[in-house]
TrEMBL record:
It comes from the Eukaryota. InterPro entries: GlpE_sulfurtransferase, Rhodanese-like_dom, Rhodanese-like_dom_sf. This is Rhodanese domain-containing protein. Gene3D superfamilies: Rhodanese-like domain. The lineage of its organism: Eukaryota, Viridiplantae, Chlorophyta, Chloropicophyceae, Chloropicales.
Length: 144
């Protein structure tokens, strides 16, 4: 139990640090650049926008839930990679860092953390399904 809590704290500190580093680097680039490029940030989106973006040919849908949750129902075509697995399975992510990466979990909390990690990894178009799969199902959207 203590080991699990220590791991959770280390992971949380790492995510917070990653977010700080990403923001600091983005701010530095923005200060030294005279173009109007926006600082990349996770877009928390609703079911409609998530579904519309899924239709883009290069969209990548990432389910960050456990295998048990995934097997109870998931969005068709989604790839399941948990936050713990991400460092070892990053080769399964899109090579194109500008491709839309749509992330979801059960309620939107875990996926928000993973979405921020993806930004830190260099992905520029990351969307989090804010209501999670619960909101997806509530909106009458299909799961497999």
């Amino acid at each position: 139990m203590v080991r699990r809590n220590v791991f959770a704290i280390v992971l949380l500190v790492g995510l917070v640090a990653a977010g700080s580093l990403t923001l600091t680097a983005a701010e530095e680039n923005h200060e030294h650049s005279h173009d109007d490029d926006a600082i990349h940030e996770v877009k928390n989106v609703n079911v409609t926008i998530f579904n519309e973006t899924m239709q883009e040919p290069d969209a990548f849908v990432l389910d960050v839930r456990s295998e048990e949750e995934f097997n109870k129902g998931h969005i068709e075509g989604a790839v399941r990679i948990t936050s713990n697995e991400l460092p070892n399975r990053d080769g399964e992510l899109p090579k194109d860092k500008e491709a839309p990466v749509l992330v979801y979990c059960n309620s939107g909390r875990r996926s928000a953390d993973v979405a921020n990690t993806l930004l830190f990894m260099g992905y520029e178009n990351v969307m989090n399904l804010e209501p999670g799969i619960k909101g997806w199902v509530k909106a009458g959207m299909p799961v497999v």
